[in-house]
Amino acid sequence: MDALEIVKEYYEHFNAKNWNGMLNLLDENIRHEPNQGEVRIGLENFKDFLAIMDKCYEENLSDMVFLGEPNNSKVAVEFVVNGIYKEADEGLPAANNQKYVLPAGAFLEVQNGKICRVTTYYNLPLWIELVSK
Q1: Over the range 27-64, which residues count as b (16 or more CB within 10 Å of their CB) and which as e?
Q2: Alpha-carbon dihedral sign for residues 90, 91, 96, 98
Q3: Residue 82, burial from CB neighbour count under 10 angstroms (0-12, 13-18, 19+)
Q4: What pLDDT is stored for residue 70 in this prediction?
Q5: The domain 3-131 is classified under which CATH number: 3.40.50.300, 3.10.450.50, 3.30.70.660, 2.60.40.1190?
Q6: Looking at residue 93, what DSSP letter applies?
Q7: Which DSSP state fits 88?
Q8: pLDDT surpasses 90 at 37
Q9: How far apart are CA 38 and CA 46, in angstroms?
Q10: Band of the pLDDT at 133, cuts 50, 70, 90?
């Protein structure tokens, strides 16, 4: 499988809430660069992140556009996050099942058939505004 196919499968697992499927595509030393906060290194830290996401958010990604590059190692993805804020996440507003629709993007790197970096970007102030209405 090439990088583009691996990343597409990763996001298919995300939308299916198949966390083990996602994790199986990640390198043991995955570098997760979130929009806010500290970089996470390693599968255990990524699992912890997924547990928080699963507890606090119900998300599905739509309008996905995947862009690969000639070296077949990096993929950019643009998408729309369609979500429900189920439970308050640390340092964020109170949750009351608020719905939100938020544009976002990610950059992923693949080496040796595994995703070794995931960098995610979205507009946090806009998200806070959407869930604070």
Answers
A1: beebbbeeeeeeebeeeeebeeebeeeeebbebebeee
A2: negative
A3: middle
A4: 85
A5: 3.10.450.50
A6: -
A7: P
A8: no
A9: 12
A10: confident
